[in-house]
Amino acid sequence: MALTIRLALRDWDWVTPLALGDVRPDGFALAIDRVGTLPEDLATDPLYDAGEMSLSRYALGRARGEAGIVGVPHFLMRGFRHRCVITARDSGLTTLAQLAGKRIGLTGWPDSGNTWTRALLRREGIGVDDARWFLGRLTEAHPVTDRLGGFGRPGQIEAAPGERPMLELLLAGGLDAVFTPFMPPGFFEAESPFRALLPDYRGTEIAYGRAVGYVPGIHVLGIKPAVVRDHPWLPQALGEVLDESARVWAGKRVKYADTTPWILDELRRCALDLPPGWDRNGFAANERMIDDFLAEQQAQGLTPVRQSPRDLFPGFGVS
Q: What's the predicted TM-score (pTM) here?
C-alpha cells in the first residue's frame, strides 16, 4: 500500500504547484489540507501526519522535554517584523525607540512573530520591563482566548481591558502601538485610520537583514515521531518536494506577473536587496537564525534554559 502523508499548511501561494499536481512527491502520496488556522496540537491531532507549526511553540515544547513532534529545519513561513508594528494614523510615533514606556498590544505573548518583534525592541534597548504589554484580539471578529500563555504579570503583561479589541483601544488612545502578523481589513486602503509605525519599514528591514544575515523564521515543519521512525527518509523527501513547489511557483511568477502591476519590479528589488539563498532551508543555512531565536526566548523570559539549535533539531546538525 502506498504511503500517504496528510499535511496541514496555511494557504501559501507557493503551495499552488503541489495543490494542482504540477509537482508530485516521489515515493509517497501527499494529501494537503490548506487550513486557515493551524492545528492546536499537531502531536495529538488525529487528522495529520505532519504540518506547519509555530517555531516558538515547538521550541518551548522541546525546552519542557516534550518529544511529540520531530521538528524539521524547513521554514514554511519567514518574514521581517518591522512592518508588523502598527499605530494610529495620527500618531506621532515613527521609530521603535519611541516605544520605550509605551502601551503595546499583542495578539499572543509566546508567538514566534511577537518574539522576533520584541527582539527588535531589545536592539533599541527596550526590554520586556521597559513597556506595558496588553494581550488581546485584534478586532471584534477575532475570538476571545487566552493569549498570555501563562506569561502574564500584573501591571506589566496583562489581558486587554475588558477583552476590548486592540484596534479600538488604539484609536481610543488606550494603546500606542500594536504588534500584528496580519494587517486588519482596510489597512491598505488610502483612508485607513491605521498605518505602519515605521515610515520606511522596507529600508529598515533591508538594513536589519544585512546586519543579521537572515530573514526570520516563523513557522517550521513538524512530523509525528512514529511516521519518522517508520520512514526515516521522509523528512528530507518532504522538505525537497515543498522546496520544489516553491521553486516552480517562483519561476512562474516571472511569466505570469498578474499578482500586482509591479510584481516584476518586486522580484527585481528582492534580488537586489536580499542575498542569494535567503530562503534556503536546512540546518546549516539557518543555524545562526535558530540560535538567535533561542537566545531571545531565554532573554525574554519565555524559557529558563538556553537551548542550542542542535537541541531543537537533533540529528539535523550532524554532518
A: 0.95
What strands lie across the sheet with 177-179, from one edge to the other? 157-159, 132-135, 103-106, 177-179, 85-88, 194-196
Cite the residue boundaries of each domain of the chain with CATH code 3.40.190.10: 4-78+216-312, 82-212
What are the pLDDT digits (tens) for 70-104?
999 999 999 999 999 999 999 999 999 999 999 99
Q: Residues for the chain: how many in total? A: 319
Q: How far apart are CA 284 and CA 135, in angstroms?
A: 35
Q: pLDDT value at position 258? A: 86
* 165-192: burial string, b at 16+ Cβ within 10 Å, e else: bbbebbeeeebbbbbbbeebeeeeeeee
| Predicted confidence band of residue 1 (pLDDT cuts 50, 70, 90) | low
Query: How many Å separate Cα 305 from the centre of its chain?
Result: 22
In CATH terms, the superfamily for domain 4-78+216-312 is Periplasmic binding protein-like II (3.40.190.10)
Q: Are strands 132-135 and 103-106 parallel, antiparallel or unpaired?
A: parallel
How many whole angstroms separate alpha carbon 157 and alpha carbon 301?
Answer: 12
- Inform me whether the pLDDT recorded for 172 exceeds 70: yes
Tell me the average pLDDT across 230-258. 95
Q: Is residue 157 within 8 Å of 131, Cβ to Cβ? A: no
Q: What is the CATH number of domain 82-212?
A: 3.40.190.10
- Categorize the per-residue pLDDT at 227 as very low, low, confident or very high, splitting at 50, 70 and 90: very high
> How many C-beta atoms lie closer than 10 Å to residue 41's C-beta?
12
Q: In what order do the strands lie in the sheet with 70-78?
A: 29-34, 4-9, 50-54, 217-223, 70-78
